[in-house]
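User: Predict the structure for this protein chain, please.
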Amino acid sequence: MENTTATKDSLPKSLRILCLGDSLTAGWSEFDPRPHPYGDTMQNELAHMLSTTPSQIHTKIDGFSGDQVRGAYMRRMKYDCAEAAKQPYDWIIVMGGTNDLAWGQPPEVIYENLSKSSRTHFHEEMHLKLLLPSFKAVIADYLLTAKVWRVALDSGAKVLALNVIEAASTLGTLVGRRNDLNAMIAKHEEDRFYTFDLWSVIRYTGIDEETRKRIWDDGLHLTAEGYRVMGKAVAARIFELLQSSSE
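Assistant: Here is the predicted structure, written as structure tokens:
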């Protein structure tokens, strides 16, 4: 369909949004005990952009520090979508891959775990369920770490996939693997699936030291100001997508 630009009056005055990810979604900082999730700023910014109140931008923050896409992402996504079955999310924002990369996972594996399930995983799960039926839930969580995006889309939501931002560490193949993963995320195409290049918004390199101190906490996580920058950027991207509707 041809894209049309919506007028402000035609935009929604209420949204239900899930932010799913790791410590960067939780708003964790090494040197600040208080969490500052980007979703809080995003909620306020969207309310302002849509001329509504923050209470009408219903936002759930599901950030689990240290989690990997191959870890509990699938289980948490299923739970969050099931919990909201009577009032499904309009948007699900997924940020994943930072910890997987840190633990040496190849970008191809991370992308597969985000985007699709493999036939091998399915058959392995069926075989193990027959052998160990009492552990089938655990086995399913372990093996079916793929298709995180698919579950979100199947709930009826639109998906906004954030790519992986920089960090202070440049050890080994980390930078190259991160670049490859971000390229895969950017190229993914599916109905109701959108991406956002957060890497270009929140840089660690190519900025002055004053800016780095203002937005970066420990070289991996952000400061309160850094999470505010992130929230404003994500809100602007969602607002852009709401304006450029294909419906």
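Confidence is low (pLDDT under 50) at residues 118-129, 141-146.
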